[in-house]
Amino acid sequence: MPSSRPDRIRKLLADLVGFDTISDRTNLPLIAHIESYLAAFGIKGERITDETGQKAALWVTIGPQDQPGFVLSGHTDVVPVVGQDWSHDPFKLIERDGKLYGRGTTDMKGFVAVCLAMAPEMLEARLKTPIHLAISYDEEIGCVGVRPMLHEVAKKKVRPLGAFIGEPTQMQVIIGHKGKHGVRATFHGLARHSSIAPDGVNAIEYAAELIVEIRRRAVALAAARSTDSLYDVPHSTLLTSIVHGGAALNIVPDTCAVDFECRGIGITESREVTDAIVAWAKAELEPAMKARHPDCGIDFEEILDYPALDTAADAAIVTLAKSLAGRNDHAKVAFGTEASLFASMADIPSVVIGPGAIAQAHTPDEFVEMAELEKCAGFVERLIAHCAKG
């Protein structure tokens, strides 16, 4: 292992990027690699495996087990690269002009690499307050993998004092983000030859009525914008994102699926908005479909759900984060993170702070600046010093 901190970070990030951990694939080889790396320092983690046995999260405690500590949390999964125009292999780390390129460098293997690189320093500091590493999976498809881990954390006798979730914020302290609720509405109509279209029940046309209603409510949400100026989009948002339906031009379509989402400012607002839309569709659209044929109707399925984050600006975890980051500002963001689940599921006060810019996340030729990783390492170094004091 390279001796200098920047070289350790580069080496670890290259290792992590080298694992193809797109969310539809196993992350076990990556987890095994991290376990092996930590074992070399005598550090053992707790694996929390999912029902399939193909995914696992890792909970690591460095320092006393019987004291409340602080969590450094990051996810290991990345978004797909299919259809993106990369100039090089996305799963091979490339460095150019102080930028480290590769899938997941910003979102968010760079943060995980920094935390792992600092593990030896955590050991050497003989911490009085423990530092926990929480390494999860399937964040990109709805913050799925952190939930079983948080169920276990919530059972522990000693609850952590707070959590730092290392999503890319350019090391700005983020105290809030919107929640999200996603729903799939599947319309079941009645197929007929298009020449006798009135005898059928057109699933796409009824789905279109739902889409128009979603759009109408989205406009109303935008008009009722919040006074919370910390958000760059200061209101809840609602949109239709995916529509699938129809088989041929000369067939009345008997199925149509519509995916829609709300990102709400309030803790539970996103679900409240989508629940109201579902209730409207069941009251207004489904009876009209069943009146045409009793087998017609709409099925609704939840496809994604996480609450909003709203940490008080004067909370102790926020004050500490600002001190460690060497800055006094804070903000809120529209994108979601696992921070809200740390707060809601395990009652752990949380902020989001990590290296890199969200504008780089999910893009071809994704990169993180080495300077950002070094800033993050400084943050962790100061956290270590803080925890060494007790």
From TrEMBL:
CDD domains: M20_ArgE (cd03894). PROSITE patterns: ARGE_DAPE_CPG2_2. The keyword Repressor does not apply. Its cofactor is Zn(2+). Belongs to the peptidase M20A family. ArgE subfamily. It is found in: Cytoplasm. This is Acetylornithine deacetylase. Gene3D superfamilies: 3.30.70.360, Zn peptidases (3.40.630.10). It holds the Pfam family Peptidase_M20. Residues 175-287 form the Peptidase M20 dimerisation domain. GO terms for molecular function: acetylornithine deacetylase activity; metal ion binding. GO terms for biological process: L-arginine biosynthetic process. The keyword Metal-binding applies. Keywords: Amino-acid biosynthesis, Arginine biosynthesis, Cobalt, Cytoplasm, Hydrolase, Metal-binding, Zinc. InterPro entries: AcOrn-deacetyl (IPR010169), ArgE/DapE_CS (IPR001261), Bact_exopeptidase_dim_dom (IPR036264), Peptidase_M20 (IPR002933), Peptidase_M20_dimer (IPR011650), Peptidase_M20A (IPR050072). One of its GO terms (cellular component) is cytoplasm.
